[in-house]
């Protein structure tokens, strides 16, 4: 697949001296669904604004289809944006909102009508053309905003926290619909969100951002299973993170025990962090478990129980289980070697990928 | 309980009755009377005598010019103001002149525009003049616009501030250049402020009289000047009142026409 957008060494410093982005390098391939994921203030929206043309980088270049568009006006870029609060034109009805871009391009009237009709059909708003914006619900306004952007047939669609104003049920529906639309049209979507679940559910690829830097990029599965540092591990999903020490390749020590693991390429004796996902921990009897813990609390969350337990070394463990247990009970925790993920302190994503290749043979 | 609440309304009602309703009734009564009693002759004189009609047109024409000039200056000012950093400070500078007495400002302009005034001394540096600036129509319009400016800028500024910046970005994102974004999004969304500004400037401008005398040198005769003339000089209260009544009706018409065009938005139906 060809590259459509490329950010090269993009930096952004605001007038007050705040550095929003530090050396961002991103390559966006056409036809994929990307997410920029990070907490507020991480710089994800700044990246989106630079791509859209509402903000210029202090340093670096933005390439679109191989052309330098760093200083090109937003109105001349072949991409469209779905804004956080939709930013619909309140003085126009649904039809005029959606037709806005095409009318500016001086398209023929019948052509515009047909395009608007198709776009409204795609977002399931048939028959809404003559409604006023104020008459629409939040979800419907969201759909109008998507139709208004897509009717221009952009090569890239940017979505800025576009689902965060919707209630949970509607958000889930829209996630599914957006993914369907993206697959059907085959255009690139770049989705900004702070909701890790949303990013995991929708994306082909995720960029995890923090403090103006890309912490990790990769498929949802890669990022979830092999976080590069404790920020990513904590931000994406729940996790148990413990200090440990590498004994040798495929063997790590934590909680005063030595465990078989799936990581290698780290000096023996090096201090590391160990990640264990709560859903990878199974509760079993004390003698069958690899760790001996006492159950401290249990919460029923509908689809699973969230259990907190403390081991013999006073480490706290978070466990997700479909079966309930009893508070105060002594139980064993079992996990497979692959469930242990070892993270080195200060290892960059590139170094991490290189090490992985060295012992996994590059698959 | 209910009666006790009504007591608080008394000062307000008394004020309205004494200073709004009574004067209107009085001038209406005067307008329909002469020495002999009830008459329509004042009105027939107003609508048949060319002088009065010319004065009415004059009033409208100058009020229009003043409003147009104020709007022309105010809209860009309000727009730039809404994009500035220390908005409160600049806003204060615009409001500040309204705290100074109108008469004082008028006299200040006599000083500035006069034969030995600031403008003529400045022109003198280049060997021009002294020019006759004071007592010209242009001076009258300029000073009137200067005085009305804050009342036009403020409502427009408020309306522009209410426009979500994201909406302007959306217009640009959809391919609108600066002019198209202004014409199709910012102007329609800030029109309510423009309408409020026009009402605040046009209506008082219809009845300006002090400035016409002090700055316009009585060359510009508007309905306002005429009313003053009839009441103070010729003591023909009936004719003065008649003009007053006509002026009130004209103002009501202006108000209805501007406010209805604000609320009315042409609804277009599209068949898909």
Automatic annotation (TrEMBL), chain A:
Source lineage: Bacteria, Bacillati, Bacillota, Bacilli, Lactobacillales
InterPro entries in UniProt: AAA+_ATPase (IPR003593), ABC_SmlMolc_Importer (IPR050093), ABC_transporter-like_ATP-bd (IPR003439), ABC_transporter-like_CS (IPR017871), Mo/tungstate-bd_C_term_dom (IPR008995), P-loop_NTPase (IPR027417), PotA-like (IPR005893), PotA_ATP-bd (IPR017879)
GO molecular function: ATP binding
Name listed for the protein in its UniProt record: Spermidine/putrescine import ATP-binding protein PotA
EC nos: 7.6.2.11
NCBIfam families documented for this protein: potA
Taxonomy, superkingdom: Bacteria
Keywords, ordered alphabetically: ATP-binding, Cell membrane, Membrane, Nucleotide-binding, Translocase, Transport
Pfam families linked: ABC_tran (PF00005), TOBE_2 (PF08402)
Residues covered by the ABC transporter domain: 5-236
Automatic annotation (TrEMBL), chain B:
Alphabetic keyword roster: Cell membrane, Membrane, Transmembrane, Transmembrane helix, Transport
Keyword Coiled coil found: no
Transmembrane annotation, as ranges: 12-32, 60-82, 89-110, 122-147, 193-215, 235-258
Topology in membrane: Multi-pass membrane protein
Localization (cell): Cell membrane
Occurrences of domain ABC transmembrane type-1 (ranges): 56-258
Transit peptide keyword on record: no
Chief location of this protein within or outside the cell: membrane
InterPro entries tied to this protein: MetI-like, MetI-like_sf
PANTHER family named among the record's database cross-references: INNER MEMBRANE ABC TRANSPORTER PERMEASE PROTEIN YDCU-RELATED, INNER MEMBRANE ABC TRANSPORTER PERMEASE PROTEIN YDCU-RELATED-RELATED
Record-stated family: Belongs to the binding-protein-dependent transport system permease family. CysTW subfamily.
Protein's recorded name: Spermidine/putrescine transport system permease protein
Organism the protein comes from: Lactobacillus colini
């Amino acid at each position: 697949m060809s590259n459509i957008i490329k950010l090269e060494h993009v930096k952004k410093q605001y007038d007050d001296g705040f550095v929003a982005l530090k050396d961002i390098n991103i390559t966006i391939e056409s036809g994929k669904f990307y997410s920029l994921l990070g907490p507020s203030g991480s710089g994800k929206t700044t990246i989106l604004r630079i791509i859209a043309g509402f903000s210029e980088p202090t340093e670096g270049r933005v390439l679109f289809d191989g052309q330098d568009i760093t200083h090109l006006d937003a109105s001349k870029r072949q991409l469209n944006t779905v804004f956080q609060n939709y930013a619909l034109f309140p003085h126009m009805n649904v039809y005029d909102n959606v037709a806005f871009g095409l009318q500016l391009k001086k398209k023929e009237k019948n052509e515009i009508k047909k395009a608007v009709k198709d776009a409204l059909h795609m977002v399931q708003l048939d028959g809404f053309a003559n409604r006023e914006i104020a008459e629409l619900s939040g979800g419907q306004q969201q759909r109008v905003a998507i139709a208004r952007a897509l009717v221009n047939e952009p090569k890239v669609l940017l979505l800025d926290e576009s689902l965060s104003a919707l209630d949970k049920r509607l958000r889930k529906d829209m996630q599914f619909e957006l993914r369907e639309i993206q697959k059907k049209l085959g255009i690139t979507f770049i989705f900004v969100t702070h909701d890790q679940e949303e990013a995991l559910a929708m994306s082909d690829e995720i960029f995890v951002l923090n403090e103006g830097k890309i912490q990790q990029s990769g498929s949802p599965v890669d990022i979830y299973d092999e976080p590069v540092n404790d920020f990513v591990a904590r931000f994406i999903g729940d996790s148990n993170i413990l200090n440990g020490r590498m004994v040798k390749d495929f063997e790590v020590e934590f909680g005063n025990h030595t465990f078989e693991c799936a990581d290698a390429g780290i000096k023996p004796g090096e201090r590391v962090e160990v990640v264990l996902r709560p859903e990878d921990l199974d509760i079993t009897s004390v003698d069958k478990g690899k760790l001996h813990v006492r159950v401290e609390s249990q919460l029923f969350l509908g689809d699973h129980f969230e259990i907190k337990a403390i081991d013999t070394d006073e480490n706290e463990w978070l466990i997700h289980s479909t079966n309930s247990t009893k508070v105060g009970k002594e139980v064993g925790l079992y996990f497979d070697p692959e469930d242990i993920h070892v993270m080195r302190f200060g290892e960059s994503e590139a170094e991490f990928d290189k090490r992985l290749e060295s012992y996994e043979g590059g698959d | 309980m209910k009666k006790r609440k009504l007591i608080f309304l008394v000062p307000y009602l008394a004020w309205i009755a004494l200073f709004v309703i009574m004067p209107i009734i009085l001038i209406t009564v005067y307008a329909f009377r002469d020495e002999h009693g009830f008459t329509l002759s004042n009105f027939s004189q107003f609508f048949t005598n060319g002088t009065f009609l010319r004065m009415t047109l004059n009033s409208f024409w100058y009020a229009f010019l003043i409003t147009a000039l104020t709007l022309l200056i105010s809209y860009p000012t309000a727009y730039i103001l809404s994009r500035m950093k220390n908005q409160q400070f600049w806003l204060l500078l615009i409001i500040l002149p309204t705290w100074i007495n109108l008469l004082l400002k008028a006299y200040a302009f006599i000083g500035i525009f006069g034969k030995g005034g600031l403008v003529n001394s400045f022109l003198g540096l280049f060997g021009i003049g002294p020019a006759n600036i004071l007592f010209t129509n242009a001076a009258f319009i300029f000073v009137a616009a200067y005085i009305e400016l804050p009342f036009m800028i403020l409502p427009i500024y408020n309306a522009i501030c209410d426009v979500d910046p994201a909406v302007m970005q959306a217009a640009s994102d959809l391919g609108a250049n600066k002019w198209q974004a202004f014409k199709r999004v910012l102007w329609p969304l800030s029109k309510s402020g423009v309408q409020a500004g026009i009402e605040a400037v046009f209506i008082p401008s219809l009845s300006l009289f002090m400035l016409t005398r002090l700055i316009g040198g009585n060359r510009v005769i508007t309905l306002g000047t005429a009313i003053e003339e009839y009441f103070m000089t010729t003591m023909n209260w009936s004719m003065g009142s008649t003009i007053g009544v006509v002026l009130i009706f004209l103002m009501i018409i202006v108000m209805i026409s501007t406010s209805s065009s604000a609320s009315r938005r042409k609804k277009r139906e599209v068949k898909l």
